[in-house]
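Tokens as discussed.
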């Protein structure tokens, strides 16, 4: 995880070096491209599964128009799920990519820690403003990703933006 975070920050720093801004004042003069911190709550009412997630992402300046988008955010998501019927829970860490312009969507891949074991997981998600749907997959064997218990999964969240030279209001 620490290695991935270091590589992500290094990659984002190198990418941001090649972009020039001709604007004066405001967030356009920032040294970072901008990004978001997302806080969300996910729930599956049929299977009584709920959880939360915190995600972080930085805008890629090579994608979209500064100030008007669409925006591409590579980032990291950290979360926890609780399965009420089985009284089990697990935590996870995902690398993810989000595309946003009012509507948002993306995919992620990572690992889950369930009952002392690491399991591969993948997800696809989409929505509009504060709500959306998530489909998650967990590895059931070394060669197979299988849909886990959370389809469809409802997502309610809030993304707190931090402006920069590419992502700003």
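Sequence:
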């Amino acid at each position: 995880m620490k290695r991935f975070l270091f590589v992500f920050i290094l990659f984002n720093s190198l990418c941001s070096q090649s972009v020039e801004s001709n604007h004066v004042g405001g967030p356009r003069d920032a040294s970072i491209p901008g990004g978001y911190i997302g806080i969300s709550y996910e729930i599956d009412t049929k299977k009584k599964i709920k959880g939360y997630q915190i995600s972080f992402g930085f805008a890629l300046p090579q994608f979209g128009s500064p100030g008007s988008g669409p925006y591409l955010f590579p980032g990291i998501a950290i979360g926890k799920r609780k399965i009420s019927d089985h009284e089990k829970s697990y935590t996870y860490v995902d690398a993810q990519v989000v595309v946003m312009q009012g509507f948002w969507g993306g995919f992620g891949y990572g690992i889950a820690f369930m009952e002392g074991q690491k399991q591969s997981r993948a997800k696809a998600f989409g929505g509009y403003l504060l709500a959306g749907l998530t489909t998650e997959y967990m590895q059931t064997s070394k060669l197979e990703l299988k849909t886990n218990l959370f389809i469809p999964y409802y997502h309610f969240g809030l993304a707190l933006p931090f402006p920069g030279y590419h992502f700003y209001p």
